[in-house]
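Can you make up a protein sequence with its backbone structure tokens?

===
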Amino acid sequence: MSSSGGARVGGSNLKDEGKFRQRVDEHYKLIASARPKLGFAWKLQTASAVALGAFAAAGVAGVLEPALPDTHVAAHIAYTLVMLWAALNGSALLGMIPPLPVRQNAKYDRICKALVLLIGVTALTPLMFPELLLTRPVAMAYQMTSAIIGLIGCALGMFATSKLGNAFEQQLAKRRR
């Protein structure tokens, strides 16, 4: 049984139908370009934390010869915990992006900026203590490499949060119009 009356929906049959598509707002493009960088940033931070955590565990277990000073092992454990916390914040921010988490973005940006100083000190520790570099060259190279990975992760995090911040500002300006 078919209906006998009413309007029927059909195609437009326009050859230039594509001309009428709306363009994507710039803030959506910024968000889309920041997501992969943010994802890679927290993964690098996690890798750095795991690497230096393993280094600290080796120091605690006494595997490293000659043994690391207790203060360095404690510093590596603290670094590991702080980097894991930063990585968790980055991962959480990535999961919240669709509703535009302005406060979480600013928090992660501040975390990354603060960690740059911490990581810089960690990377430069072997240069500040030449006796460590001479007696433990492989261990110190490992420490520097792990810290540089974390530094790259924080730099990517700052870049991504900057893009997200710009996107949030653009969206807010659009809403106010």
Remarks:
- Residues 37-176 form one domain.
